[in-house]
Amino acid sequence: MWSECHKCYAARYGEPMPAATAATADLLLQLQTTLEIQDLLCLFSEGVQSFVPHSGLRYRHSSNDLKVGVWEDGSYHCRKVLVLVDEDLGELVLSRSEPFSGEDSRRFDSFIHLLLHPLRNALRYSCAMENAHRDPLTGLGNRRALDATLARDLQLARRRGSPLSVLMLDLDRFKMINDRYGHAVGDCLLRHFSRILSETVRSSDLCFRYGGEEFAVIMPDTDSNSANTLAERIRQAVMLPHCCGGHPLQMTVSIGVTSLTDKDNERTLLGRADQALYQAKRLGRNRTHLANPAGTSSIDTAPKCS
Ligand SMILES: Nc1nc2c(ncn2[C@@H]2O[C@H](COP(=O)(O)OP(=O)(O)OP(=O)(O)O)[C@@H](O)[C@H]2O)c(=O)[nH]1
């Protein structure tokens, strides 16, 4: 019944669809037009508004905490737990300055039935997108995520006229670790390295596993000097011994550093960071190599201890 359009309803029953039925039919159709959770909640809030007036809507799930409209924490709330068969879909809360009546709550319930399937689909889509952009071993963003983030951050830096730097990092002689201690120990070191990376950079910097034992960091609002300082901090932190599979191991990393120029696109920026990394390897590994943004000269930070 809900999926019938107004015309079909009129043809079948010989009268126009009642307003409440028409509203739920329209809302159901609208909710099927998006897989984005935020958009879905906006559509839902608009659809429910004339039947259960509210100033704000909040959706909480283990993977999300979203607010739509004017959310006032201190005012009246109408809270619903969302379950579809046995699946926990989170919690939906309406808020406003007037108390909610029993009738409001019942109407809200009847609209929630329309939301459950579209919301479950949106949650699954969001989870699939998240997995498609995450490296399963380290939990860092993967190369696809790096490409998308770099394109976005590059545009942002251009618009604001702010600096942007990139690090490319590659663990040294990692094949030896695998060959000597086995792949599981190698995996343990890769996880350890990604933790060091995430803990050493600032919260605005983003870390990615580029592939194998190669990683990248995007640093918005960061010039080459600050990027070089941060790269050195990472290099020093990596050298501290770490126990994997009962083996106290020490690793080192080579790092290429570069910053955005006017002529750069994503490919040239990453390419220059990769070249700087290659230079760091060529000059003896366990070092940071800064490519001059103009690409004409470069600075090498030799290890203070190795
Ligand atoms: N354990 C583990 N090893 C990996 C993974 N991905 C790539 N590797 C290993 O990383 C090693 C990379 O070796 P190479 O490319 O020769 O580089 P390297 O030994 O680090 O030497 P340099 O980079 O020249 O310092 C190979 O042995 C790969 O098998 C992974 O997910 N887990």
Molecular structure report:
With 306 residues, the protein is an alpha+beta fold. The chain has 2 domains: 6-132, Beta-Lactamase, CATH 3.30.450; 143-301, Reverse transcriptase/Diguanylate cyclase domain (Alpha-Beta Plaits). It contains 9 helices and 12 strands. It has helices at residues 6-13, 19-31, 37-49, 102-132, 143-160, 174-181, 183-200, 224-238, 266-282, and strands at residues 56-61, 64-69, 76-84, 87-96, 164-171, 206-211, 214-220, 242-244, 247-249, 253-259, 288-291, 298-301. Strands 6-7-5-10-11-12 form a 6-stranded mixed sheet, sandwiched between helices. Strands 2-1-4-3 form a 4-stranded antiparallel sheet, with helices on one face. Helix 9 links the parallel strand 10 (253-259) and strand 11. Helix 2 runs antiparallel to helix 3 and helix 7 (183-200) packs across helix 8 (224-238). The longest helix has 31 residues, at 102-132. The chain is elongated, with a radius of gyration of 27 Å. The N and C termini lie far apart (73 Å). The model has no long low-confidence stretch (mean pLDDT 91). Guanosine-5'-triphosphate binds next to strand 5, helix 6 and helix 7. This is diguanylate cyclase. It is an enzyme of class 2 (transferase).
